[in-house]
Amino acid sequence: MNPQLLWVLGLLAGAVLLFALNKPRMDAVALLALVALPLTGVLDIRQTLDGFSDPNLVLIAALFVIGEGLVRTGIAYRLGDWLAARAGNSETRLIVLLMLAVAGLGSVMSSTGVVAIFIPVVLSVAARLHLSPTRLMMPLAFAGLISGMLTLVATPPNLVVHAELRRHGLEGFGFFAPTLIGLPILALGIGYMLLARRWLLRDDTRDVSRPARPTLAELARDYRLSERERRLRVRADSPLVGQVLDELTLRQEHGINVIAVERERQFRTLLLMATGSTQLHAGDFLLVDLVSPAIGLLGTYQALGLEPAPLPASYYGRHSHQLGLAEVILPPESQLAGKTVQEIALRSRHRLNLVGLRRQGKAVEGVLVDEKLRAADSLLVAGEWKYIHRLQQQTRNFVVLGLPVEVDEVAPAISKAPYALLSLAVMIGLMVSGAVPNVLAALIGCLLMGAFRCIDLDSAYRAIHWPTLILIAGMLPFAQALQQTGGVDLAVRGLVGLLGGAGPYAILACLYSLTAVIGLFVSNTATAVLMAPVAIATAQSLGMAPQPFAMIVALAASAAFMTPVSSPVNTLVMTPGRYRFGDFVRLGVPFTVLVMLVSVLLVPWFFPLASQ
């Protein structure tokens, strides 16, 4: 073993130790490595910084932007709404649909981002079904990790392994190459979680503390909105058809306050905020707030040509990405004190509806429209989020106490959702066809997102996870340094000498196990950087095709199921799922072994071991 190799191995061991301690941050460790590597004399400055010119860095950055476009246009959140609607009251159906939805969305965007999006969705559905979040958060995390095994662009380790193959002058992977193994693993994961969820049952009296900001559901409960919410369909023979709301005076004469209108369009449902000029059409569904639960008897409905329609859940929850609630108080100097609700004209001046009023901590019932407001009264207003944000600027007459947690999920470019899907389809089409390199396909997708205003430049730059890019650029020179100093050859000789007589399947299992174990202490991206050259060199020393060996490393890098710190996905669900460290060990270790067995059996089936 030469002195240069010892120096490189010492640096690598130091980096791994710092990765495990997470002090300093992983991207900072990568930068330290970039400074230290040229001191070995193995690499010069140009070779050390070559990682920054790797096309995969640009590709990964572009994929972060594409994922942000899907979030800003509401596509990710609509998928969550679909999940909640389709799950019904079945926990089994919920787990199946949840894992399918998360894995599908995670195959084209960051799995960490997908899991972050779905955590509030899962908590909401769990509360509705009276389930412990403990039974649902683990399936959410496992699906997020499995999503990295579904497409080439699903996770950075796949791209790192693909790039290493191309760097050796070998054929890389196609867009759907991991899918052949990922889909069976996803099916295995769903079945495993349906059986293993019983292992998550325990006596746990700990309560999840209420967030500092209220949820929409909590605001609706505090103001007793659920007692007054109704969904009414406008019949074809209704006298309301063709009329505008200002002419109808529904609130004054019938105690019916129209909040919004659901209007069916081909392939979708439009939600229109109610204004004085809103015209009603036959077939519209009115989302209304009754002045009192006693109002709205069938006689009133029949006279107006309305019929009650099912309302399976609060419409504030169903349309939370567009329809919001906010609690507002009148400051002592407010000019609105002493005026009635009708006189302050919230709908005409601010395009918001007053749906609740609390005085001295108690909800005021009855006809609010004629209620005179007092200083320190608490008002609950409903409307589009953008108008609620504007009300925050009216500090003289209103003070917005705080926005509910759902405001974080609001999609600012929701009307651009079809264009975001088109941009995504163009990118995937170009990648699958091979018409242009993957990095150009991703950049074209980003440019289309920008051209269609699905995302702006500031949001695009914020969406890129720069520490991941720095980490990859900082670790890539280690792979080259190990190759030039003979470190890779040394690892290959040891591996082949130990298991060469046992056959390729044993070596594949060993590569998988080694990658998974390293992934417990090092990020999956850094693990792929280190293990990909070893896998390729091992295959070449055995006279076999490198692709199956490289694919094993890619799959194992995503199999971070065993501890809560082996992946950001696991760390995210730790608190909302109320998990202990042992929960991940108890469920993750057996599943990792199962995934290894499936991978070792299927990879040679789809990627022949024989060298061409």
Description:
By secondary structure, the chain is α+β, with helices and mostly antiparallel strands. The chain is built from 28 helices and 10 strands. It has helices at residues 3-21, 26-36, 45-48, 55-72, 75-87, 91-106, 111-129, 134-146, 156-167, 179-196, 216-222, 245-248, 250-254, 298-304, 315-318, 341-344, 346-350, 385-391, 417-433, 438-451, 457-463, 466-484, 487-499, 504-518, 524-541, 546-558, 568-574, 581-606, and strands spanning 229-234, 256-265, 268-273, 285-290, 306-308, 323-329, 353-359, 362-363, 378-384, 399-402. It has a 5-stranded antiparallel sheet with strand order 3-2-4-1-5. Strands 8-7-9-6-10 form a 5-stranded antiparallel sheet. The two termini are 33 Å apart. Mean pLDDT is 82; it is low at 203-212.
- Identify low-pLDDT runs: 203-212
Helix percentage range: 40-55%
Q: What is the CA-atom radius of gyration, in angstroms?
A: 29 Å
Q: Helix- and strand-based class?
A: alpha+beta
* Spatial strand order of the main sheet: 3-2-4-1-5
Count of distinct strands: 10
Outline type:
elongated
| Alpha-carbon distance between the two ends | 33 Å
| Proportion of strand residues | 5-15%
Number of helices: 28
State mean pLDDT (0 to 100 scale): 82
- In this structure, how is the largest beta sheet organized? 5 strands, antiparallel
